[in-house]
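Sequence in, structure out.
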Amino acid sequence: MVSSFYVVLGAILLLKLSLDVVKLRNQYRVTYGDGGFSELQTAIAVYSGAVEYVPIALILLIILEMNGAETWIIHLCGLILIVERLLHFYHLRYHDIRWQGSAINTAYISLMLMIIGNIYYMPWSQLFSLY
């Protein structure tokens, strides 16, 4: 399954972002919340953004592949997802406002492509069959 590659990349990304938060919490000796430290606030925002989008996007990607989408479509959607998360990370981490619109637009494009792809490749005859 091609989508398993992107599941692994998504898991690695989530793990890296989580470790960033843990490292900063240890550095600033903060147990809960952000302690008012802007660097920790940013790391939490980057991580929470990934936790919001990555799981549902990966579920859509896996189902898209299970529905029989072509391999290039799986790669396209997976690459867009990973690039979008990296843009979001870069935008928030380095406060680069130029990437703000690109990151959110790419997230919506990625999700919409996978939703439309799943609707297109869905086995409609099995869905409405009584047998």
